[in-house]
Structures are given as structure tokens and as C-alpha cells.
Amino acid sequence: MNTSYLLGWLTFRFVFATYFRARYFNAERVPTRGPVILAANHASYLDPPLAGCGVSRPINFLARESLFRFPVMGSLLRSWRTVPVDRDRGSASGLRVILDRLHEGNAIILFPEGTRTRNGQLQTARSGIGLVVVKSSAPVVPVRVFGTFEAYGRERLVPKPLSVAVKYGKPLMFFELRAEAATCSKARLKEIYQQVTDEMMAAIAALEAHEDKEAFP
């Protein structure tokens, strides 16, 4: 971690520990070196830093390109190596940056659902993350956050001091689907992208509440 990221990590870790009583489970499942994709459900703006605070390696986050236009915010995001995403013009440039970061051996967090849930339930996944997985060799660690919707969902202006938690699953490799994607037809390739995404969401859904019930609201 560089100094800027470390200070941010410590700050968020403190806030999550004191205000949200955050708990982290099975963080050792996240590889400490080499490329890795963290695939998480998305319930709140709290999800990216919460998932990042559970591991001791730096995570590359995604953020709207418009945020980089503000001098202080832009400098901070760049120092954290945040990937800018322009939703209006499409995601081709962002996709290239994501794949480059993975090829460099970095960790990156992605949200298969694409946007925050409106009701606290898991949503249907989009196939875009399947393309990223297939075009990289990175293991995929399913991640599930708990309590962030109740604490700071779409309708809340101020976060509530409720318990939150994050649980990391066992890495997925998709060896067979990645190998098939190298030689299959375009029609089948689209199916593979969606299949990979669906399997990731199934793995996220399988991460149920930890036996320690005090960790969750």
C-alpha cells in the first residue's frame, strides 16, 4: 500500500469498527499476491470500502469519471489507483484499464449486479463481468456484504450506526469455460459470459450469514 491508500484504509477501518461494528470473515481466502477479482453484491456506497478493509492488500476500485474532475477528489482517487468509468460513453475504455490492472497482478473489485439494490435483495447479474473474467486468468473471489443496505441504502441520506459484515468465499477459476471461450463461436461466447456471471452470483448467494449472529443486524 502507498501512503495515501494506507491512510484511507486505516480511516475507513476505524469508522467501520466504531460506527458500524464491522466484522470480517474468511479474508484469508483472498490471494495476497497476483491478480484477483473480488465479485461482490451491491447494496450501498459502503460496499467497496468495506470489502477493501477486510484484506491487507490494496484493491483497485471503480468510480465515475466525473468524480475525477474535482481537484482534491481526483487527486485522491488517482493516488488510490481508482479506475474511472464513463457510463455515458460506454465501458470499453474502462474495460481495457481493468484488464491491464489484472495483467499487472493487481486486485480489483467488481459488482456483477451493476448497480445498488433497491430492496436489499440480490439482483440479476449482468454479463459484462463475465467478459472480464474470461479475458483474464485471475481467480474470482465471491464476496457478500451484510447490513449495508439497512445502514446506508438508496433511500438514506445519513448512515445509521447498524452492524455490517463482509464474508469472502473460496476462489473460482472457471478453467473449462475459459478454455472453451478461446475457440468457440460468438454466440456461444455470449452464453459463456452470462454463465460465468450467473455462477458468480450463485456463489455470492451461497455465502450465508455467519454462525456468529452478533456480526449481523
Can you describe this structure?
The protein has eight helices and eight strands; from the N terminus they run H-E-E-H-E-E-H-E-H-E-H-E-H-E-H-H. The chain has 217 residues and is an alpha/beta fold. Helix 1 crosses helix 2 (47-53), helix 5 (128-135) crosses helix 8 and helix 7 (175-181) runs antiparallel to helix 8. Strands 1-8-7-2-6-3 form a six-stranded mixed β-sheet, with helices on both faces. Helix content is 39%, strand content 14%. The protein has helices spanning 3-18, 47-53, 71-79, 92-103, 128-135, 148-152, 175-181, 186-205, and strands spanning 23-25, 36-40, 59-60, 62-64, 83-85, 107-110, 140-146, 165-168. The chain starts with a helix and ends in a 12-residue tail after the last helix. It is globular. Mean pLDDT is 91; it is low at 212-217. Strand 4, helix 3 and strand 5 (83-85) form a beta-alpha-beta unit. It has one domain (3-149, 161-210): Glycerol-3-phosphate (1)-acyltransferase (3-Layer(aba) Sandwich).
